Amino acid sequence: MTPHPSAATVRRAAPQDQPLWDAYVRKHRHASSFHLFGWGQAINKTYGHALHYLMLVESAPRTLRVAPSGTDNLPERLLGVLPLVHLRHPIVGSRLVSLPFLDGGGILADSVDAEGHLLTEAVRLAQQNAVGLIELRHERLMEGVEKPMHPVVGASASCLPPRVLTRSNKVRMLLKLPESSDLLMKSFKSKLRSQINKPLRAGLVSRIGGPELLEDFYKVFLVNMRDLGSPVHSLKLMKETLNAFPNDARIVVVYRQADPVSAALVVGFGGTLRNPWSFSLRRYASLSPNMLLYLRILEFACDRGYEFFDFGRSTQGEGTYKFKEQWGAIPEPLYWQYISLDGKTLSPGPVGKGRLEWATSLWRMLPVPVTKVLGPRIRKHISL
């Protein structure tokens, strides 16, 4: 029986809490890899964003465990976690996000009451730090977030009551995998098999590895993002991701002769392999390198015993959605919940269409080396 959380307390996790935190995450049936401690560390080491990793803990009643050093410690039992990253910018504003740059995160707890206590602490933390918006990225609907919150002790009487908006216009595309890579190709329709054979006939080859492929991965990333007109992430974020998950993260690269033309970074957790970042160069689109890229990723997932592959976030009906759908992936809604504390913005509003088109066109004209320097300085403040 789960103890009532009223006897528990919420505190910020310290680096030494990582084993306790990750052990809780790995046992929770609703957890994703984004709840693991390493993601926050990778983001902090790359961009310097402050971390507020909240733990709802209960100490075992009156039971002391004496540490080897002779210090008495109360063994703690985790009832829930909430990883928060603090993004602050004079123009964009100040936000607590779980988690920026990724598809998931959010509250993970044993009960609705436990969720409420973590949420209450998040609101208190936001008010304390003059944060106007909390953004929680869930892979299932958290109805408790929209209910009245616990009273925030010490909150100013002038504080506005939080307002909540839930958006589910984005989906993740999930593919159930066969038991082996031998069965994989047989599961595809003839049209898809024909598309997969195209890069093979063109002589494209692939490699799967770790940090030794990082430079080739980033070459594709840089050019792809410049061509899209979007600032690129820092190479350090990819490096820190590989460092955080040395046994679960891999890089897949497709080559045309010696040139990398398509690449992905995949991370496994539980029975699911997912790719936070994948790209292909537009000038090689006629060779369909992305088809070979995903074939190799899916083969890797099957042979490693993963049950599902998560293609990542998409908008229904758009090009990326249709690409993922042809592999047999099924859409599952993502529930992103926005808690406004300043009475203004309930979610990060889109940039005006005209300004966005202008900025995108301008970015596409920049030399790639320039975007490599400027991109991360801008991208660190964009939570998507």
Characterization of the model:
The structure is a single chain. It contains eleven helices and 17 strands. It is of the alpha+beta class. Helix 2 packs antiparallel against helix 7 and helix 5 (190-201) packs across helix 8.
Helix-strand layout with pairing:
Blueprint: E1 9-12, H1 18-27, H2 37-47, E2 50-59, E3 65-66, E4 72-73, E5 76-89, E6 93-98, E7 108-109, H3 112-128, E8 133-138, E9 163-167, E10 170-176, H4 181-187, H5 190-201, E11 205-209, H6 214-228, H7 235-244, E12 249-256, E13 259-269, E14 272-280, H8 289-303, E15 308-315, H9 319-325, E16 330-333, E17 335-340, H10 353-364, H11 368-379
Parallel strand pairs: 6-8, 14-15
Antiparallel strand pairs: 1-2, 2-5, 3-4, 5-6, 5-7, 8-17, 9-17, 10-15, 10-16, 11-12, 12-13, 13-14
Helix pairs in contact: 2-7, 5-8
Question: In a few lines, what is going on in this structure?
Answer:
The protein is of the alpha+beta class and 384 residues long. It has 11 helices and 17 strands.
Quick tags:
eight-stranded mixed sheet, seven-stranded mixed sheet, 11 helices, alpha+beta, 384 residues
Total strand count, please?
A: 17
State the helix count.
11
| Estimated share of beta-strand residues | 25-35%
Structural class: alpha+beta
Largest sheet: 8 strands, mixed
What is the H/E order? EHHEEEEEEHEEEHHEHHEEEHEHEEHH
Distance between the termini: 38 Å
Mean pLDDT: 89
Q: Uncertain runs with pLDDT below 50, 5 residues or more?
A: 62-72, 150-158
The Rg value, from CA coordinates, equals 22 Å
Shape: globular
Task: Tell me roughly what share of residues is in helical segments.
Answer: 25-40%
